[in-house]
Amino acid sequence: MSYEIKEENNFRYIETGGDGETLLLLHGLFGALSNFQGIINHFRKTYNVVVPMLPIFEMPIRKVSVSGLVDHVAEFVEYKNFEKVHVLGNSLGGHITLLYALGNADKVDSLILTGSSGLFENSLGSTFPKRGDYNFIKTKTEATFYDPTVATKELIDEVYDIVNDRNKAIRIVATAKTAVRHNLSDKLHQIKAPTLLIWGRQDTVTPAFVGEKFSELIEGSKLVFVEECGHAPMMEKPPVFNDILETFLNELAAKKTATTE
Prior knowledge:
single chain, 9 helices
């Protein structure tokens, strides 16, 4: 199922318009709508699933940073007049989720992090971006997953096209550098929203110990490992991921109902 990308007030996004609360999905550096297809299809009717396109390649180069992307998300939530949101972020999107929550606690119903940066991540290597070398990009993209066949030719081509666009490659590197500098280990104790961590057991980008450290530093958070899975569980194991997420959201809804009765 495809969704129209809406363009309003310098924001580009999709919105399912489901009946329930808002589930905001934040993609990573190489993220695309295809990354979240499983979540969108599963929750599109029971939640208002919203995916803003992060302007990594559009914002002025001097503003390219994790902080700039957090500001964009905050402005988008304000523009859409969302009272509260469940925020889910993968990789860099998780980092943005955390920073958004730290600055806008009153807007956050819950956090869901999967393969999040913010504490430690393996970079694409000192040779990145290696322009023109398709096999190098293919190998790096496949390494994101436990099962390399999840890296379809379409996905590899998307990454290859980004890396071979000089303007985009510069922005990817600049954003990644600000993320590494923006370590959150001394701030995570401030997060009080219910937090779910869904981690691929075989994640090589943000390894399992990173998920464990997030769980240790975010009080009351719940960590669930997905077996035989890499850096993007929502892509590699959609049914498992959706079951974990749905259970978490249902538990939160039950608690809300209990407190209002």
